[in-house]
């Protein structure tokens, strides 16, 4: 049986409800070293469906898959090494894996080229940061001009373009995500398995400007606003959560459009987007209560396309593999 037949037959078995047989088939094909079966098994082990989640084992299966020349497996292995999924975070190991992949993969080679333009420490953290500008004291809003380079912004846009779907919000009653007219953009979330090494370095830079640890940040979210699309006044906090979104970081990824300003409705502060600029603002008061003054809106785009990256920072470490249940 070929690799394609093994994966195809396993998917058919899953569709028919025969999960044990599907898992056994992929396990057998993976044990025989079939690349696509190895890749499928690794994805299952990461997602926790249809097998239980097992990140350390997923790392081992990915390593075997990479040895067959599987390019997608190589990029996921880099992401897991950087983010510390299934093993401790190891920037240098992730960088070595990426350079190895770049020998045969033009996409990986472009990521290496982008990283060489960044000034980074041995941990992937930034050597320096732009001088911030205080825009508002209550709520505290700071702008970091040119936090990202145009090339870094383009990398985020290109990496997520095929993932964009109608954006969702969190239902305050159930905690579940849902499409809602308050938010009319398209969005994508960069899962830990898709986090390129360049995006990981950017997330570490975001942690640095927010004076937090990288592990406190949710996965980077990317939004695209077409003319007329907007995000009406809202708070980024989550009602009833035990690990609140204490800070928000917004990074403006492009220019060449009109409208789309970020407006804080309680104070009237309006931030005009400039490519690569970031704003960092607090969502809570010093005692941890939600700060109603942090209500903000993404005003309607009137011409062109606006692209924005958002990272919500939690009070404590956030596990993207096991997000809180409603």
UniProtKB/TrEMBL annotation:
<keyword id="KW-0479">Metal-binding</keyword>
<keyword id="KW-0256">Endoplasmic reticulum</keyword>
<feature type="domain" description="Fe2OG dioxygenase">
    <location>
        <begin position="210"/>
        <end position="315"/>
    </location>
</feature>
<keyword id="KW-0847">Vitamin C</keyword>
<keyword id="KW-0223">Dioxygenase</keyword>
<dbReference type="InterPro" id="IPR005123">
    <property type="entry name" value="Oxoglu/Fe-dep_dioxygenase_dom"/>
</dbReference>
<dbReference type="InterPro" id="IPR044862">
    <property type="entry name" value="Pro_4_hyd_alph_FE2OG_OXY"/>
</dbReference>
<keyword id="KW-0325">Glycoprotein</keyword>
<keyword id="KW-0560">Oxidoreductase</keyword>
<protein>
    <recommendedName>
        <fullName>Fe2OG dioxygenase domain-containing protein</fullName>
    </recommendedName>
</protein>
<dbReference type="Pfam" id="PF13640">
    <property type="entry name" value="2OG-FeII_Oxy_3"/>
</dbReference>
<dbReference type="InterPro" id="IPR045054">
    <property type="entry name" value="P4HA-like"/>
</dbReference>
<keyword id="KW-0408">Iron</keyword>
<dbReference type="InterPro" id="IPR006620">
    <property type="entry name" value="Pro_4_hyd_alph"/>
</dbReference>
<dbReference type="InterPro" id="IPR011990">
    <property type="entry name" value="TPR-like_helical_dom_sf"/>
</dbReference>
